[in-house]
Amino acid sequence: MQSVKPETVVRRSVTITSAALGRGVLADFYLPAHSRTDALPVLLVNDGQDLGRMGFAPLLDQLYRTESIQPLLCVGIHAGPQRKLEYGTAHAPDYRSRGIYAPRYTYFIIRELIPYIKQCFPEFVFPEWAFAGFSLGGLSALDISWAHPQVFRHTAVFSGSLWWRSLDQADPLYSDEVHRLMHNLIHEGAYTPGLKFFFECGTADETEDRNHNGIIDSIDDTRDLIRELVQKGYKEKEDIYYLEIPGGTHNPATWALAMPHFLKWAWGKVDIDN
To answer: Does the predicted TM-score (pTM) go above 0.90?
Structure first.
């Protein structure tokens, strides 16, 4: 176990043995060095290996030093060698059978990782859990959160792979309304009060525009999913925060720009103190 100590953040790395995944899972724990409370919200982050490239510890340090957010326990979950099989939608893989191990990954999060965190930090209580992820990891975080609304309150999706589909878009029978898996889950699901959703897209996330409307697919897919959430009863701005970054690309540098927006929206000190 290694420790790196910025001014207000302690980082610890540990490998967790997962029976569900049949492998060790490397996770980085970002703890506040000094907390005046024993109650900490927990933020799980898929693709946690990208947090270092984002400068996540210094980012947290800056937010703590300026008293912009309340203290959090952040857990960066490193992806494994079968990332494209473990991330996805647990109810069904995509048309190329990617995501076939998503049910196992969901089990790891709910039945192995969360109990592990509670056991490792008995000195804290965790009043709230959140899940975030980048790209395919964002899709995975949303899928798991949507399926477990009793566990997760906030979900953050950065450049999410919301195109995830059950039929190749080159197939003449393909339809956005029928074959996008996450959109269908939202459409067929139920409204749960209290859930909050953050979405980020960069205008240069990609170049694909399958419906030739002049808007890249990642933005179209995100906006369409937001519309599904609104139809369920969630309110834009109050329950849904959508951030579109001009010139933003599909990489950790852009996600680092977006992360403070999410953290302040979810756990900003202004909201807490007023």
So the answer is: yes
